[in-house]
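#struct-pred

JT: dropping the chains for the assembly here, can someone run the whole complex?
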Amino acid sequence: MQKIVTSLVLGSSLMMASSLVQDAANAALKPIPQSQTALLKLIDNPKNPITKEKVELGKKLYFDPRLSKSGLISCNTCHNLSEGGDDGVEAAIGHKWTMNPHHLNSPTVYNAVFNAKQFWDGRSPDLEDQAQGPIQASPEMAATKGHVSKTVNSMPEYVAEFKKAYGDDVKVSFEKITDTIGLFERTLVTPSRYDDFLNGDKNALTKEEKQGLKTFIKVGCASCHNGLGLGGEMNVLNVTAKYKYMNVGDFKGDKNGMVRVPTLRNINQTAPYFHNGKIKTLRGAINEMARIQLGKKLSAKETKSIETFLKALDGRKPNIEMPMLPASTSKTPAPELN
Amino acid sequence: MQKIVTSLVLGSSLMMASSLVQDAANAALKPIPQSQTALLKLIDNPKNPITKEKVELGKKLYFDPRLSKSGLISCNTCHNLSEGGDDGVEAAIGHKWTMNPHHLNSPTVYNAVFNAKQFWDGRSPDLEDQAQGPIQASPEMAATKGHVSKTVNSMPEYVAEFKKAYGDDVKVSFEKITDTIGLFERTLVTPSRYDDFLNGDKNALTKEEKQGLKTFIKVGCASCHNGLGLGGEMNVLNVTAKYKYMNVGDFKGDKNGMVRVPTLRNINQTAPYFHNGKIKTLRGAINEMARIQLGKKLSAKETKSIETFLKALDGRKPNIEMPMLPASTSKTPAPELN
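RK: done, full complex below.
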């Protein structure tokens, strides 16, 4: 008798899980695949395939503050891999302590490869192109293309690594450098227990987290936050709604008012929220999004349930060993602090 | 006959090496010991012994920018472990892009455990004490003790790690936090081929590097740059000499005009040089130090020979995996950018 009951309970639990996986698929939610081959296919750049040498080199460049005019700001400064892939402040602070002039919050670099487009207004098609932006932007790294290529070419170790990665006839141009940074960023993918669940491990999520996923789908969050990144596509930000936060910054999306939906992966680690970083807490963000984008006032129970699910999106980060950067030489441009 | 010649040559080469090791010992040069037990004895803090848990926790705190007022500056910002343990600029840049008011250059954290005292003026007895300084200094991390302890205590993962490291009754005070950072810093030791040579591996240095070590000793560099750190003791900086660089900054040493001699380990990776960072190249630094401190004008050959030796002090850095920091909570103090 006990056996039959257990079997019925297990059966029903499995059925629930399996129907939830189906609901998630119907809501266009997609897990990061477990197979490394399948994952590589998703993240690779056909024009510049991922290799170990390129990724190692890209990592060094990502962490090298000498690419900036001041010699003090690296990609990792605003997209800190120790801090969920961003910087924890409302709006990016760059060269000469300048705040992003549009009061835009730094998006996480983790899983950014899954974004259909890059930047909040989606003006960039991929990570390679995106990497060119902040390096040159005067309120960010404030460097010229010439500064970047001259800096990298001034260090024989870097040049040797470029040759190893791309062949002896490589030209270490600004674009080759940013392409290599973008390639490294493609590898920053963080599978989570949520993915394990969608990939078939029925016990990867707790009962409360499964309930949270249900609520997430039922409330309609997945209408924008879907796909591999639970976000990453362009969508309309309802600027006609009365935003609590719209009085800060002048961002209005792209020319059609479209905004790149942020990924929800590792969202618990990337406060503050929204394009201008004006929402401090995850619960606040959930409530405000439901109100503005879905016209819904969530109950405290619903908010908490969604929050519980979102925390299960904390991903397993790649193990990243701190790179040791080549020493500057007499040819390396001196830092310019002004 | 060939055999006898070979044997004579080898014999003389070995003799030269062995006599050079003796010369180095006579000049008070000391290698980092190969034995991990012996090394631990040199770097450990009897009042707070090194454990794996404390070091891992200290590493997180070292990399956590939320310890600063702005949430943007960590210990690693100015003492960048990827960049030879310093920042590559003349004088430290901190909160609100403020330059060190005395135009003081950030010393490397690598091998700083071997310094007899900390800071350029030696005002601090050890790394634990030193760590309290920059965190609170308004032109650096600009935090209050309260900000730091409140920040760390706001994250349950940090508190749990402190309990794991120090026991359940630990009080996560500012001093406990800085003690733990100091403990991590104690482990940042970088043995080099120079140490291998002094420890008995006759072929660890090239012929030119051995010649460089001889020149280094003969010229008199080792009269200040000696001991485990090739530096680290207090000594007189000859301020009566006409310095090329003394017109920048107001640093005059401690109350007796004494200055902490910088370590020469990894010196090739820590340009620019001198307390105010006004000397750009290693050769320039060698020449200027010989002129000022030893009253000598070096020949180009001597300078090059010493430079060749100094480059052999590039050490093997510890493998440091980027720590993943706990997520901020609603209790974590918000970043203050002003």
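JT: nice. Strands of chain B lie at 93-94, 98-99, 234-236, 258-260. The two ends of chain B are 79 Å apart (CA to CA).
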